Amino acid sequence: MPDTLSLSQSQPQQHAFNPYTENGGTILAIAGADFSVIAGDTRQSEGYNIQTRYAPKVFRLTDKAVLAVNGFAADGNMFVKKVRQRLEWYRHAHAKDMPIRAIARLIQTMLYSRRFFPYYVYNILGGIEEDGTGAVYSFDPVGSYEREACRAAGAAQSLVQPFLDNQIYFKNQTPAPGTSFPRHLPLSTVLSLVIDSFTSATERHIEVGDGLEIYVVLAKNSPSIQGLRDVRGVSELTSTDDGERVFVVRRELKKD
Amino acid sequence: MSIMQYNGGSVIAMVGKDCVAIASDLRLGSQALGISSNFQRVFPITDRIYLGLPGLATDVTTLRERFRLRVNMYTIKEEREIEPEAFAHLVSSTLYEHRFGPYFIEPVIAGLSKTPTGGIKPFIAATDLIGCINFAKDFVVAGTASAKLFGVAEGLWEPDMEAEDLFETISQTLLNAVDRDAFSGWGAVVHVITKDKVITRKLKARMD
Amino acid sequence: MDHFPTNWGRPRNDAYDAYGTFPLPHRPNNDTKDAFASGVQRTQQPIVTGTSVLALKYKDGIMMAADNLASYGSLARFKDVQRLHPVGKYTVIGAGGDISDFQYIQKFLEELIIEEFTSQDGHDLGPAEIHEYLSQVMYARRSKLNPLWNSLLVGGFKDGKSFLAYVDLLGTTYSASTLATGFGAYLAQPILRKEVEGKETELTEDEAIRIMETCIRVLYYRDARSIDKYQLATITADGVKISDSRHISTSWSFAEGIRGYGAQTQ
Lengths: 256, 208, 266
Description:
Chain B: It is found in: Cytoplasm; Nucleus. Chain A is of the alpha+beta class. Chain A has helices at residues 2-10, 73-94, 100-112, 157-167, 187-204, 225-229; strands spanning 26-31, 35-41, 44-46, 49-52, 58-62, 65-71, 121-128, 134-139, 145-148, 150-154, 211-218, 234-236, 245-252.
């Protein structure tokens, strides 16, 4: 009897504190010729618990850059806060907004500086390049990044990305003889694909749903503005009047 | 890594207008190593029923023979061909017999069943490895690329497609899904079952 | 009998996961054997704990509720503890989790309020500022792997606007018109959402009290770490009010009819 007692006392039961959790949700971005679309759902969850039906994952950084963050929400919010702080310092030093390719490199150094205690966040940066083209940059949690035309990340990445491969890159499709596939899709097509992607992900993934926020960044004097005017639920967020323009489209998703 | 992912492979089935389709990749692997690009995992059961067996390759062989035996016994006893609904329950009960030491297979069933009025009705179903049946009205998926198949199928599928449209939809769904899956791919085969014939086509796919 | 297969073969940690309700990936894996474990000061675990806190938005502002129990494991150790705490003139915070960590939070928030007051700059801290400050503290502590082991609700009313938000030991934050921490997230939140969502600007104080009573009663019936003594706080244009301890009525007559669990002879 004394033996068993001392045995149980000598090994106090302990567990390490886990500083991470996963908060679900999915984000996605698609670049057009002179625009960029960045979207995310608004559900925040932990395990089977829906914490809130409205917690934004997509943030306007400048009039030409929008950042979507997905993974551990506390890290995500802190990361956006720090990126914004660095962009403000840049503004004070240079009297202009940081170009998007510079923001992308900034994000990579900020992520890599936490290489051994990472921000558990997948970032997708969308916006307009200095040459007026639409851009999407995607990152892993420790800063690997590349510029591409489209990217999905988060809980339903595996559902959405192959769909986008097919519909954006026309993978596994051959054009009719004598024709070719467009390199960039028009804004209306891109918006339809984004909405379809999220309704599909909502249907088959429990961590996706509740609401959808689609940010649209238009290059200076982009003709795509015409198609955006009559989109349901659109509102403008632009802060200046002679440059790129930022819009957000808000939609409902199923709540079950 | 789970035993379900050891050999890789994926299967999908879809319903169309008076037709069904079932498709699979052709890869056999040993974890990340590719072994064969011509591994059959979809089998005809009757003229109007096809069965896909994604999962552990050794159990694919075993179960194919088991189902051949049991369908033959059924045909002899009943003196008629088995219907897809009955076959789905046969699959289910066969797997459930091994509830606590299962075959590592998630079968997918596609077929056309006869209606009392003499017509035909498309039928698809899938079960988990212990025989829980999912009767779906649209599509069923299984295997290592199942999440990707769900995503693409949910985006591309629509009701009442004719045989040729159904072929295009299931082919695109499968190819784009397995191209994002390291354990599936290396070629594909599609069967479209219609009232008077079964169209089988092999698809060229990415070989990386 | 532990009905959660993921817990089988693992020592139970009552203080950390009293109900075995943590999401599967986050279940404590208590069986890892670290040869140097005894030489390392591990962060901590909650010792004296409070259970759920509930809050909702209603017509006049925010209502918050929490019972008066502080548990020591499964022992109902302190039965007259206040878990709702006013901060400044416009805010109440409610805490679940470790009570001593909560008292430390009360202390530094009090210092913060005094500091802000003495500057006499014509500004004072509202609920949004206090929540932001708390979030930064909680996140900073988790980043040092030395968390304040709490789930906190921050409710307030300032400049005609109500505010309600959550923050926990990981620094996770969110906001909604109804919030519940701990076991309340499972038992009370569905009731709160059904009763409140879409009616935030119509609910009267009496209706809000009735909803809170229902939730507290459900929790008392099913949450073994709760008691039937609780307090209500309201934060409105009239300021902060925290009620005296109240008693929730319960009925146990149905227990007579239950057969099969106890030691009945018939």
